[in-house]
Amino acid sequence: MAELLVMNDSMMISGIILAVTFMGIFTESLHGFHRAKFAMMGAIMMIIAGQYYGFYDSKLAVIAIDWNVVFLLGCMMAIVSIMIPTGGFEAMANYMSKISKGRQFMLMTLLGIAVTGLSLLLDNVTTVVIFGPLIILIARAMKVTPIPFLLAAALFSNTGGVATLVGDPPNLMIGSAKGIDFNTFVYHMGGMTFAAWITVLVVLRFLFRKQLAIEPQGEYHEKTEFKDRKLWNQSLLVLGLMIVLFTVHHSIGWEPWMVSAAGLTLLVFIARRVEMDHAMEDVEIPLLIFFISLFIVVGGVEHSGFLRYLGQFIVPFVQKDLLTATIVLLWVAALLSAAIDNIPFTAAMIPILLGLEAQGVHVTPLWWALSAGVGMGGNGTHIGSTANVYMVTISERLAKRENDPSLAITPWTWIRYGIPTMIATLIMCSLIFYFFFDFYDQSVIVDHAAAALAPAH
Questions:
Q1: In a structure prediction context, what are the per-residue pLDDT tens digits for the chain, which is 457 residues long?
Q2: CA separation for the pair 275, 119 (Å, rounded)
Q3: Rounded to whole angstroms, how far apart are CA atoms 219 and 207?
Q4: Torsional sign, CA 328, 333, 334, 339
Q5: How many C-beta neighbours within 10 Å does residue 68 have?
């Protein structure tokens, strides 16, 4: 039996920096510092401490950043920035408003269906980037608070994105590490996601019962005339092509960021009147800096050996009772993702699971539990997923623009509605794992992926 790792100064200091950083991020409403500032501070502290103790430096920090995610987000935000002035989203708003006829729960359901539909094939962040401004537009015209709809859109996008390989950044990371293709991912996660989606809708109907019962004092009657229908159609054509490329990106050897970058490049050349300055107007630079900093912090924790230290205690538990380990990982992944964002947490967990596989431990169900856990857990707090952070950001911008603090989604607001939703979906997922464990226990490794992993044994 391999000798157990012992906690050392490097592990301890990296853990302390991680804890301080996320405490600062989570309590931003108390101290007044934007979350990106604390993330930046944590990243710098981790690099300095790493250099002092010899486990991290600036070069390793750059390597720790998942540029695939950063470039993907930036390019998709730019594409949406080009689409916004066309009037296409206003037309969608008008259509949904007409169907709902002022019934707020009906409007929430329609938004949930639309958000989930896009989240199945597009990254959930891209989906909320599209629907965030649209939701604010409708809510302000109806003279109701946009908070229930912004929260619902993020929760539905997080939940819906779990179903497919390209629906959520953690899924892309898991699929790449494990060698899971698009169809296999849908086959295993589609049913669970549908059950979780229904659960989210029921829980939100209960939690927002007072807000949804209010009779709107206004109506959305924006004309559906397009300001630039040609550009809208061109954008939809590019998005359609990107969806196809996302579904086959593994086969053609493209990373997801390459698909988004190619789509953006194609769009700015097709729509030759679009200026690059205009295309970048709605790219949330603070948001990108926030996640770059998070990757650096988590990378430092990994290089300190703290993750290996934790992983060694998991092996006996997994070997003894895999079903219990699967459900425990589901909940642990959810709770930690709610606290530190699901993308960096997934990046931290992948090497742990790969390490267990390298030791000959069968962990196939744990990959599905990790995907479901980080997806559902992302609903718990405002920093649980990139989609959440974006929704919080645009709500804060709206509150500042209209000088109305009540329009901003605070950390406490998100906890109040996100935690019950997260717990309800986790209970549903736990039941599904329990009753259909044999289905999730079957091997999903494709031959070429197994061959690629062979040298590590």
A1: 456 778 899 999 998 998 888 788 767 656 667 778 988 999 999 999 999 999 999 999 999 887 877 887 788 888 878 887 888 877 777 777 778 877 889 999 999 998 898 788 766 777 887 788 888 888 877 888 889 999 999 999 999 989 988 778 788 778 877 878 777 888 999 999 999 999 999 999 999 999 888 887 766 555 556 788 889 899 889 988 987 887 787 788 887 789 889 999 999 998 877 878 777 877 878 878 987 998 898 889 888 988 778 777 777 888 888 999 999 999 999 998 887 667 767 777 887 887 788 778 888 999 999 999 999 998 998 878 878 888 988 898 888 888 888 888 888 899 999 999 999 999 999 999 999 999 999 866 543 333 333 333 3
A2: 28
A3: 24
A4: positive
A5: 17
Evaluate whether 88 touches 226 at the Cβ level (below 8 Å). yes
Q: Return the SS3 of 120.
A: coil
Q: Which tokens hold the place of 321?
A: 């009772």
Write the DSSP assignment of 393-444 as a string of letters. Answer: HHHHHHHHHTT-GGGS--HHHHHHHHHHHHHHHHHHHHHHHHHTHHHHHS--
Q: In 253-303, where does DSSP find H-type helix?
A: 256-270, 276-279, 285-303
Q: How far apart, in Å, are the Cα atoms of 105 and each of 144, 218, 293, 375? A: 12, 16, 38, 24
Nearest Cα to Cα of residue 408 among 424, 388, 423, 391: 391
Surface-to-core class of residue 389, CB atoms within 10 Å of its CB (0-12 exposed, 13-18 middle, 19+ buried): buried
- What does 23-84 look like in DSSP terms, one character per residue? HHHHTHHHH---HHHHHHHHHHHHHHHHHHHTS--HHHHHHHS-HHHHHHHHHHHHHHHHHG
**Predicted TM-score of the model (pTM):** 0.75
Torsion of CA 295, 301, 305, 308, to 10 degrees: -70
> Which token pair is 349?
């967990």
Question: How many other C-beta atoms can be found within 10 angstroms of the C-beta atom of residue 192?
Answer: 25
Provide CB contacts within 8 A for 419, sequence distance 6+: 338, 380, 381
CA distance 288 to 74: 8
Angle at 411 between CA 410 and CA 414, to 5 degrees: 90
Q: What angle do CA 123, 135, 166 make, to 5 degrees?
A: 5
Residue 241, both tokens: 């092509």
Is 235 in contact with 266 (CB distance < 8 Å)? no
Alpha-carbon distance of 111 to 117, in angstroms, equals: 10
For residue 409, the Cα-to-chain-centroid distance in whole angstroms is: 17
